[in-house]
Amino acid sequence: MYPILLGSIVGVAILIDKFVQYRKILRELDIPLGDILKNRAKPAILVPILEGLKNNCHEKEVSVIGTKQIRRIEKGLSWLALIASIEPLLGLTGTVTGMIKAFIVIEKSTSVNPSMLAGGIWEALITTAAGLLVAIPIHIGHHYLENRADDIAFLLKEITNELTVRGRNGI
């Protein structure tokens, strides 16, 4: 049960961190490009791309810089996927150990009444439910955050393309 609790704490912490991070980035990028370029404080995610363009990096180099930025913002999402996958398995492990305990009681007793089996069955049910109750929201949150990361990646590519065209045209 403790591994399930640990997974839920880590999963919720990552969900909150990424939700706040993505919301901030999307808010920073949700203004016209001209306004972004006029502001002294540029969105942190754009700074390396702008530096690459300022230093006349080749388009492929700028693309690599953009890909690195996207990978940086996606960091942590794989942990959410792992937690969402492992939690039901941890619950299933609890199910198995609970049923083993119930069968040990049956084996050691000459007469079995339901209350003797209840502890093992209770353990089996509670760990299964806990694993699922952690995994389902983490999985939903992971899916939501993946979509937000895709939105950010699209915006970065769009901005980079527009900046590259402006640079070629001398704007």
Describe this protein's structure.
The protein is mainly alpha-helical and 171 residues long. The protein has one domain (2-169). The chain is 85% helix and 0% strand. The protein contains 6 helices and no strands. The chain has helices at residues 2-29, 33-38, 47-54, 59-74, 77-108, 114-169. Helix 1 runs parallel beside helix 6 (114-169), helix 3 (47-54) packs antiparallel against helix 4 (59-74) and helix 5 runs antiparallel to helix 6. It is rod-shaped and about 90 Å long. The protein starts with a helix and ends with a helix. The model has no long low-confidence stretch (mean pLDDT 89).
What is the 3D shape?
Answer: rod-shaped
Low-confidence stretches: none
Would you tell me the overall average pLDDT? 89
Largest sheet: none
Number of helices: 6
Distance between the termini: 60 Å
Number of domains: 1
Structural class: mainly alpha
Number of strands: 0
Strand content: under 5%
Helix content: over 70%
Oligomer: single chain
SSE ordering: HHHHHH
Radius of gyration, rounded?
25 Å
Provide keyphrases for this structure.
171 residues, mainly alpha, 6 helices, rod-shaped
Short description:
By secondary structure, the protein is mainly α. The protein has helices at 2-29, 33-38, 47-54, 59-74, 77-108, 114-169.
